[in-house]
Write a structure and sequence with these properties.
Among the domains are: 159 residues; 127 residues, Four Helix Bundle (Hemerythrin (Met), subunit A); 191 residues, I/LWEQ domain (Up-down Bundle); 47 residues. The two termini are 62 Å apart. Helix 15 packs antiparallel against helix 18, helix 16 runs antiparallel to helix 17 and helix 26 runs parallel beside helix 29. 82% of the residues lie in helices and 0% in strands. It has 1205 residues and is mainly alpha-helical. The chain has 32 helices and no strands. The longest helix has 136 residues.
């Protein structure tokens, strides 16, 4: 459905009115008209066609209102408006970039608003199922998501972007209001705040939608994946809550919208049970728009038709009413000085709030640093505890290693004893004594090396104990540092509390106190920087300690590796000792076998000796053998004693084994002694039984031969055993050499550990020296903190004194302002009771006289104010307020007199002088702001008084030149009454002439006279109706425009229009008289006076047209009286045409009846008649030319100066 021409015109008018350049909110009726226009045009094409022709890039107010209007249309307009607006995104972004360079408060706001609008368009383009109002019904969100979690994820991101733009726009608007000190109850403030209403309407459903989408995401996705979403939501939640709180606190939004309330804490999306407790916030809009106090017209007539068409630019009656009301209330002017003081107080409050936020930021920064320091300290404590545990573990491992080394040493000490036993067995078996000596020498060397290793191990243990003590001392120093840091933090917290208290108390102080607070803040920042430097130094020292501990840890790890190497070597040694022990056991078994065989041989020998007792040779041989055996035993005993003497030093730990071995040896010796005794006894027995044995001698000899063979075999086996033992001893020598090399390597490693321990001790001493430096710096910092606290106390005392004096001065000044304002208000109320007095030279003269006195007193008070060192503020404030009010009143009254003056040139001259007077007023107040320049203020006051006196003289002279505007109301009524009377008299005379013509004339002349007089009568009747309609329309205009004033006052204010009415009324009255005269001549004189009647009819028609135009100038376009006046004007025009046509027709008929009969004339008579006619034609042409020139001069004269009767 396309728009008709009328609808398109009405829509254009509504959008033009909505996007005017007046800094006030858009009227609701214009917005509704634009929204309804989108439904009439089925989209936004018609709106954009009109909107792009508006001066969006020429005026910032128009651009701001355009963004607001477009936002409302996208929300409440036709559903296709968003789709049709997508093509204009580039224009919106360009407008935002253009106005973004303007720093007057609107530029940045327009930039953010255009970005928000583009985001909204793109959001609805990507989500066509979501309407422009963002209101969803039950189940719509599930339809949009289509059960796909990816769609919900993307939708959440888009809602986040949308809400970010809304939050950015509202923050910019509130910053603009705060920066430029704009009140929300003024038109500029409301103009800036009005777009926040659709922002609140958009943000509320977006928040509800986002909460539900977040619950769905947490129900289907892991919590870690949505961490970024939760952080972003929490940020937006607090920003929206702050936005709603600020909007709810403004009085402007109380009657416009019910701002929703958000809970104290955001929902917990990780618990799906919170979805059941969730309540969506609600935005409530009232039914009526308080910004639009006018009655809302019907839909078909939404446009204000009182707006003038382009050819005749006029103001609507509402605007005139507001203008008149502004003229009436112009004497009540805001007090400039009070506004300046309020602005200064607001600036001071803003500065104090800024200081509070800065102090809070510093406090938060210090808290963050403290928390970070505590975290670092806790981590260091954990690391120290871990290092202590590792040191204890290493100490235990070293102790175990020492015990294992002692055990290995004992085993190593035991091994040579076994070897000596093996050597003893070898010596018994004719072993080599030299090998035993070599083994002894090697064992002695190994024992010395073990002793050295034990000493080194003792030294390392002592060094480890020293390092443990150093670590303990370092931990103790760290604890002391921690305690000192805590004390510093407490002192810093006290300083911060003092600063916070000072900033809170300085909230009501003046700019000088704010500067002191800034100085204090700078000192605190310097202290904070010093503290940060100390903290950085401490962290560096801790890092160095950490490096040292890591170095010790690496050394401990190296030592651990060495320990593990020693452990492996210990294991190999243990395995070798086990092998040696096995070999020793085998040798012991072989020795026992040998001893058993020897015993068996000895028994057999004794047996055989008993048997060979009879044989002396055998006995002697046996005795010799026994002696040899005794010598061998004796030799073995001596060797055993030597071995015991040698082993006594090596077997201190094995005394029990040695005693057992000794007991066994003694038992063997006793056994040998007993055997010797038994052999002696057996020899005696053998001597007695020699004879019995002789028989068996041969057999015994054979057995002896067999035994000799066996002995030789045993000797061979014993020699092979000795060879094997030698090879084993050589192998053990090689192994001992390898152990010696390894012991040397261990000695080198222990020496390196000793060097590392010495280096650790040196580092510990360096750390202790750094700690002493830190303690010294701490003492210096404490001393500076004490001095700073003393300064802070002094500043607090000064602040309290200054606050008391400032409060007293402000209270005195406030009372003076209130009293002066009360006087001015009472004066303004008294002036409003005499509305006719304003705008007159007499009233201006009265204000000027009073103003001269006030300026003289102001000059004196200012001089006294400077002499008293700015203490007497009250008198100066009173005089400044009263002087400002009187100056403003004089300025307004002077301009009113200039605007009302009929003498335009004099009015313009006075207006120029008043402008110069306004410049002098501005310079005076600028000089008053600089209180130190007394001479400047005196000069400004003198100059202002001279200019005021000059303006007063000119206005008094203008008042003497009376232009008759004082009696314009009476003149209008008089002229209109005269016009009515003239019309009535003319109609009566025409009726009288008609009656006379009917009585005296007959035939064609009677018929002609009747037609002419009837046409004149109809014309007069139409003129009478036109005059009546004009009177009704004038009454309507006066009643609508006068307000509380009288009709005469209205005529006086609009004197030009009134003079036009007077002139039109006079013209109509004269035209009526002229018509009556022409009609009388026509009736009496015949055809020669028909032209007089035509001219008279046209003249009176022109006069009525002048009356119509004069009446229609200020008439409302929707007035029924205006329509009736137009109809009456058309009727007058038609009646005039009828009169003209009738006059011409009647003239033709009369001329036809009076034609000459040329047939009765002679040639001479005919020629003479022709010449007479030519002469008359020439005369008439000449007379016509003369009359035309006279008419032109007459009109020119009447144009410059209206004709008077």
């Amino acid at each position: 459905m396309s728009l008709t021409d009328k609808e398109y015109y009405n829509l254009s008018i509504s959008i033009s009115k909505a996007l005017n350049n007046v800094e006030m909110p858009i009227k609701g009726k214009h917005v509704r008209a634009a929204i309804i226009g989108t439904f009439h045009s089925n989209g936004g094409h018609a709106f954009w066609a009109i909107a792009i022709r508006q001066p969006i890039q020429d005026n910032r107010i128009v651009a701001w209102k355009f963004c607001h209007l477009l936002h409302k249309i996208l929300r409440e307009g036709h559903p296709l408006c968003c789709q049709h607006s997508m093509r204009h995104r580039g224009m919106l972004l360009e407008a935002g970039k253009l106005w973004g360079h303007l720093n007057d408060g609107y530029g940045i706001c327009i930039k953010h608003y255009t970005k928000l609008l583009v985001t909204k368009l793109e959001f609805h383009d990507r989500n066509p199922r979501i309407p422009g109002s963002l209101s969803l019904r039950q189940g719509d969100l599930e339809k949009i998501g289509e059960g796909d979690i990816n769609i919900y994820f993307q939708l959440a991101v888009e809602i986040f972007d949308y809400l970010d733009d809304i939050v950015a726009l509202q923050a910019t608007i509130f910053n603009s209001i705060t920066t430029f000190c704009v009140s929300s109850m003024t038109s500029p403030g409301q103009c800036r705040l009005a777009p926040l209403i659709p922002c609140i309407q958009d943000s509320n459903p977006l928040y509800d939608m986002l909460v539900r989408v977040m619950f769905k995401l947490h129900a289907n996705l892991p919590s870690d994946l949505l961490t970024g979403h939760r952080q972003r939501f929490n940020t937006l939640f607090h920003q929206l809550r702050q936005f709603y709180g600020q909007s709810r606190a403004l009085q402007y939004f109380v009657n416009l919208i019910t701002v929703p309330k958000l809970p104290e804490a955001p929902p917990n999306f990780q618990q799906q049970s919170d979805l059941g407790n969730y309540q969506a916030p609600v935005v409530v809009m009232p039914d009526s728009d308080p910004t639009d106090n006018e009655p809302e017209p019907v839909v078909s007539n939404l446009i204000d038709t009182a707006e003038a068409a382009p050819p005749i630019p006029e103001l609507p009656p509402q605007h005139n009413h507001q203008h008149d009301h502004h003229q009436q209330s112009s004497p009540v002017v805001p007090i400039a000085q009070v506004i300046e003081l309020e602005r200064l107080i607001q600036e001071r409050d803003e500065l104090v709030r800024h200081l509070q936020t800065e102090t809070q930021r510093l406090s938060n920064h210090v808290k963050a640093i403290t928390m970070e320091q505590r975290d670092v300290q806790s981590r260091m404590e954990e690391q120290l505890a871990a290092l202590r545990a590792q040191l204890a573990q290493r100490h235990d491992e070293l102790t175990n290693l020492r015990f294992q080394k002692e055990e290995l040493e004992l085993r190593a000490q035991t091994a040579p004893t076994l070897e000596q036993r093996a050597q003893a067995e070898e010596e018994r078996a004719k072993a080599s004594e030299e090998k035993f000596q070599k083994l002894k020498t090697m064992y002695t060397q190994i024992r010395d090396e073990h002793v050295n290793l034990l000493r080194q191990h003792g030294e390392i243990s002592k060094q480890l104990a020293t390092s443990t003590e150093a670590a303990t001392e370092a931990s103790r120093a760290k604890a002391e540092l921690q305690h000192q840091l805590e004390e510093l933090q407490q002192k810093q917290a006290l300083v911060q509390n003092a600063l916070q208290q000072s900033s809170n108390e300085a909230r009501h102080e003046q700019e000088a106190i704010s500067e002191q607070l800034q100085t204090m803040t700078q000192k605190c920042e310097s202290l904070q920087s010093r503290y940060d430097e100390m903290e950085a130094t401490r962290l560096a020292e801790i890092a160095e300690l950490r490096v040292g501990m890591e170095r010790l840890e690496t050394e401990i790890q190296t030592f651990q590796q060495d320990r593990e190497t020693l452990s492996t070597e210990k294991g190999s040694l243990e395995e070798r000792l086990v092998e040696i022990q096995g070999e020793k056991d085998e040798l012991a078994l072989k020795y026992q076998e040998c001893m058993s065989k020897i015993q068996a041989l000895e028994l057999k020998t004794e047996h055989y000796a008993k048997e060979e007792a009879s044989l002396q040779q055998s006995v002697s041989a046996t005795t010799q053998r026994t002696e040899e055996l005794s010598e061998q035993i004796e030799h073995l005993r001596m060797e055993k004693c030597a071995l015991e003497q040698k082993c006594s030093d090596l077997e201190a730990a094995k005394e029990a084994q040695e005693e057992e071995f000794r007991r066994n040896q003694e038992a063997e010796l006793l056994r040998f002694d007993s055997m010797k005794t038994e052999l002696s006894e057996q020899l005696t027995v053998l001597e007695t039984t020699k004879d019995a044995v002789t028989e068996e001698r041969q057999k015994t000899l054979e057995q002896l031969l067999l035994l000799q063979t066996e002995a030789s075999q045993k000797q061979t086996d014993f020699e092979s055993l000795v060879t094997d033992l030698k090879s084993v001893i050589e192998q053990k020598d090689h192994e001992l050499e390898e152990l010696n090399i390894k012991h040397r390597e261990l000695e080198e490693k222990y020496q390196s550990l000793d060097a590392n321990m010495e280096r650790s001790v040196a580092e510990k001493e360096a750390i202790e020296s750094d700690l002493q430096d830190l303690l010294h710096q701490q003492e210096e910092t404490e001393r500076r903190l004490k001095s700073t606290q003393m300064k802070i106390g002094e500043l607090e005392t000064a602040l309290i004194d200054t606050r008391i004096s400032g409060d007293t001065a402000l209270r005195t000044l406030l009372e003076a302002c209130i009293k002066s304002s009360e006087k001015l208000t009472v004066r303004a109320i008294g002036e409003n009771e005499m509305p006719g007095a304003g705008g007159t030279p007499t009233y201006f003269l009265m204000i000027a006289e009073e103003l001269q006195e006030v300026l003289t007193k102001l000059k004196m008070v200012h001089e006294n104010y400077l002499k008293d060192n700015s203490t007497n503020v009250e008198s100066l404030a009173r005089k400044v307020i009263i002087g400002a009010h009187l100056l403003a009143s004089a300025h307004v009254q002077g301009m009113t007199i200039c605007n009302r003056s009929a003498n335009i040139e004099s009015g313009e001259r006075i207006a120029e002088e008043i402008k110069k007077l306004g410049q002098s007023i501005t310079s005076l107040f600028q000089a008053l702001q600089k209180t130190s320049e007394s001479d400047t203020v005196s000069e400004r006051v003198t100059d202002l008084k001279s200019k005021l006196e000059q303006v007063t003289t000119m206005i008094v002279d203008l008042g003497k030149q009376t232009d008759g505007t004082e009696n314009l109301g009476d003149m209008v009524e008089t002229e209109l009454s005269s016009m009515d009377k003239a019309i009535e008299e003319a109609a009566a005379q025409i009726q009288e002439m008609l009656s006379k013509s009917r009585a005296s004339d007959s035939g064609i002349k009677l018929e002609v006279n009747e037609k002419i007089l009837d046409a004149c009568t109809n014309l007069m009747q139409a003129i009478r109706i036109l005059v009546q309609k004009s009177r009704l329309l004038q009454s309507e205009v006066v009643s609508l425009g006068k307000g509380t004033a009288s009709a005469k006052e209205f005529y006086k204010r609009n004197h030009q229009w009134t003079e036009g009415l007077i002139s039109a009324a006079k013209s109509v009255a004269q035209g009526a008289n002229f018509l009556v005269t022409a009609a009388n001549k026509t009736v009496a004189g015949g055809a020669k006076h028909q032209l007089d009647l035509v001219v008279a009819a046209q003249e009176i028609a022109a006069c009525t047209a002048q009356l119509v135009v004069a009446s229609r100038v200020k008439a409302p376009r929707t007035s029924s009286n205006l329509t009736a006046l137009g109809t009456a004007s058309k009727n007058v025009t038609q009646a005039t045409g009828i009169v003209v046509a009738t006059a011409k027709d009647c003239s033709q008929r009369l001329e036809d009846s009076q034609d000459l009969d040329l047939g009765t004339l002679t040639v001479h008579q005919a020629k003479t008649k022709e010449m007479e006619i030519q002469v008359k034609v020439l005369e008439l042409e000449q007379a016509l030319q003369v009359e035309r020139m006279r008419l032109a001069s007459f009109r020119k004269k009447n144009y410059h100066q209206p004709a008077e009767e």
